[in-house]
Specification:
With 361 residues, the protein is of the alpha/beta class. The chain has 14 helices and eleven strands. The two termini are 29 Å apart. It binds S-adenosylmethionine.
């Protein structure tokens, strides 16, 4: 298993490339152009995916070092084209050593992925999947244990096929309860919870991707007053925009695996729960040590697979934070779903979906 410290505190490095410029190019004007690009002041959006960029003098001419999770030489050339630099590029010197992605780089990659999915949601039967686009959302929902009635009851576009379990099925929600959904996506579990807690209950969905929040709010508004007891808040689950001791039940479906600092997520969950409040979470967990090359694969991380912590680690984190009656039960059959996300990856050897429960005493 990856060590707890690796999951909690990833090293601040990332992948990237070096680009060699022609020998006669002076460093300073290049630095100015690059600064313009990376601050976005040229307005071309070419800074997307770039975390850090520096220009250094070298015997054969200046080298641009670009760091970012999704950076390739082609993307750098495209970006620099906006900045009138490309003619000066002599070629790639070499890739920077692969290292751990910074938390910020991961958050950006996650927001980009789920932002794109939210924007695609109008396409019929999006079924975007945690892994690859293409699965049918309702088929996946049925595989995860949602009933046809439940799937038919939610607003169109609320189920994007992004879950890995059915937290509602283990939540035992009661009328009048206040429910919080961590990483609420387009709102599937919030809308189902809203029906169970009724008019005297309340449901709050939190998601850090603006396009996803816009999507879930649109889904709620499309039903008039029917979901007046649901609200969606933009925010990170590591910094919940929710008052202390105000929530009865925390739901989450396939989200905590994406978080770099899982301890902080559980601390926040503990803070906002009332005494006696409970966790009802579906998430991807690791059953064997995930090899470093798979852990560092950005697409596998944003696709809910590479960031999974082990069952033992989650149990320790939850217990250390203060939860009692912690239970983590792997869901037999979830491998069929996970296999569809990444048919060409060996990750079903390493991860499984699990039902995670615990109580704040
Ligand atoms: C795999 S999707 C699951 C969405 C939803 N729970 C469902 O089942 O349809 C993950 C969602 O979590 C959100 N997310 C990921 N990391 C987050 C974080 N640290 N804070 C808040 N939201 C996050 C993403 O924007 C995305 O909408």
């Amino acid at each position: 298993m990856a060590k707890m410290s690796e999951i909690d505190n990833p090293q601040p490095e990332s992948t990237g490339v070096r680009v060699q410029l022609s020998p006669n190019v002076p460093v300073e004007p290049i630095q100015t152009l690059v600064d313009t690009c990376t601050t976005g002041s040229c307005g071309c959006g070419c800074a997307a995916n770039i975390e850090a960029i520096t220009v250094e003098g070298a015997p054969d001419g200046p080298q641009i070092h670009v760091q970012g999770p999704l950076v390739s030489v082609e993307s750098i050339a495209e970006a620099l084209a906006h900045c009138e630099v490309p003619d000066m590029i002599a070629g790639q010197v070499g890739s920077m050593p692969a290292g751990r992605l910074s938390t910020a780089a991961r958050q950006t990659a996650i927001q980009e992925r789920y932002g794109r999915i939210a924007e695609m949601a109008d396409q019929v039967g999006c079924g975007c999947g945690c892994g690859e686009v293409g699965a049918d959302a309702d088929v996946l929902g049925a595989q995860l244990g949602y009933t046809p009635d439940e799937l038919a009851s939610v607003p169109s576009g609320a189920n994007l096929g992004l879950g890995c379990g059915n937290p509602i099925a283990i939540a035992s929600l009661k009328p009048g309860e206040t429910v919080l959904d961590l990483g609420s996506g387009a709102g599937l579990d919030c809308f189902l919870a809203a029906r169970q807690v009724g008019d005297h209950g309340r449901v709050i969905g939190v998601d850090m991707t603006p396009a996803m929040i816009a999507r879930s709010r649109h889904n709620a508004q499309s039903q008039g007053d029917r979901y007046a007891n649901v609200e969606f808040r933009l925010g990170e689950i590591e910094h919940l925009p929710v008052a202390d001791a105000s929530v009865d039940v925390i739901l989450s479906n396939c989200v905590i695996n994406l978080a770099s600092n899982k301890r902080q997520v559980f601390q926040e969950a503990y803070r906002v729960l009332k005494s006696g409040g409970r966790l009802a979470i579906s998430d991807i967990v690791a059953t064997r040590e995930i090899p470093p090359d798979l852990r560092e694969d950005v697409a596998l991380w944003t696709g809910c697979m590479a960031g999974a912590a082990s069952i033992g680690e989650i149990e320790t984190l939850l217990t250390n934070v203060g939860f009692v009656a912690v239970s983590i039960v792997p869901q037999s059959g979830s491998h069929d779903v996970i296999r569809e996300w990444g048919p060409n990856t060996p990750l079903t050897d390493y991860v499984v979906s699990a039902a995670i429960e615990g109580i704040k005493p």
